[in-house]
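Appendix C reproduces, verbatim, an entry submitted by the partner laboratory led by Prof. M.T., so that reviewers can inspect both the input and the predicted structure.
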Amino acid sequence: MSSAFRPPNLALATIGLSLATFMQVLDTTIANVSLPTIAGNLGVSNDQSTWVITSFAVSQAIALPLTGFLTRRFGEVRLFVSCSLLFVLASFLCGIAPSMGLLILFRAIQGAVAGPMYPITQSLMISIYPPAKRGMALALLSMVAVVAPIAGPILGGLITDNYSWPWIFFINVPIGIFASFVVANQMRGRAEATVRPKMDYVGLISLVIGVGALQIVLDKGNDEDWFNSTFIVVASLVSAIALAVFLIWELTDREPIVDLRLFRHHNFRFGTLALVLSYSAYFSINLLLPQWLQRNLGYTATWAGFAASPLGIAPMLLTFLVGRYAMRFDLRLLATAAFAVMGTTCFLRSRFYLDIDFAHVALMQLLMGFGVALFFMPMTVILLSDLQSSEIAAGSGLATFLRTLGGSFSASLTTFLWDRRAVLHHARLAEAINPYNPTAQAAIEQIGHGDMRAGAVAINGMITQQGYQIGFDELFHALGWIFLALTLVTWLTRPPFTPKSSSATAGGH
């Protein structure tokens, strides 16, 4: 890799890289709100349609840690352009898929080629920007990582409601072709050393089986009632054995397909830990809020998306400032401020109630956006700061893989805890509703207008809503404390957060 290479038009190269990344990140969420429509059109159940999401997530999770191996083999630019064009092809095939089986297959291909795109984008952006402006490049990518998942459900809802679901995939075609052409053109002449590393078949097979089974367990655990399901028990055992083999083999093999030795770097080790834990907590918020808006407040999927969307305003407005001035501060201070803001908004959300209005929900998202704006870029800079330039793509891929896996764990755990806490509070609240409580019986009769059965159904619905509301408040209270505790993890890293030597200039920021 030549750290001195500059594209003919830096702005155009940045647009190309950012557009491709936006397209890829957008597709992690754009299909979520369209699943009922897709299921209906293809004649399958809603449960079967969730494999549209799971197949993408599993393939992406497997491909992410392979980024380092693939870049050594093919070169960053060639791999990025190839992945972008294959993503376009897979998107087109998703749009014309005549059956659910084929749609799931094409989504799996889409996820597999999407995996390396974000880590390579980070590495390319770092390499083409001069040292003083690399913070700006990473801040821009951070904004993409924040805004695209928010835009996904809104765009998905609008496209599905006003056109047809295949267009959530077809819109990738012109974007991906344009981005691929621009990046290929701007990066022409960039020197890249490629090697033919020995294929680590044991590592690859154990990774595919271990991560694939784990992702399926995390995605399907709640639906299958976790370890009461034979399928979940078997998949968990398969995952545990395969991942144990993978870890032992990769740490002892001379040419591992995933370089776990990157964790010998102090800042990469603790920076990745802080990123994974904080992203997992952040992911819980983004999962809980839309579900709560729809389940408890009766919002449509589109309006739930609008209520969540102010989260992206501050990152968009502050990208320039964060990118330009962040490196003048101790990045641990910025991350601490980010976690303090995010923790505070979680504590404030823990006081939400069923009659709260749209403005209050949107305002809290807006405030949290200021924390998010100071979160991604500093954490990324910190964890990449002590890697050599040749390790950036592999390190970014490994950190992004663990971040993605953390999000999956978080999603499963959050859904599980919310449901369990709701059931517990429902039981406690319903204790007084019995035939021996004349006050309760009078209330049921009044609510049902004399019909005791209708009144009982109505009051049970109210208690269920209250149970979920109390559970929601409890989870946000816990998330507030988690963010505050994460400030301590951030301070385990140590400056300088700049390249160790001139040979690492491509990797320092």
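DSSP finds 22 helices and no strands in the chain. Additional entries are available on request from the coordinating office.
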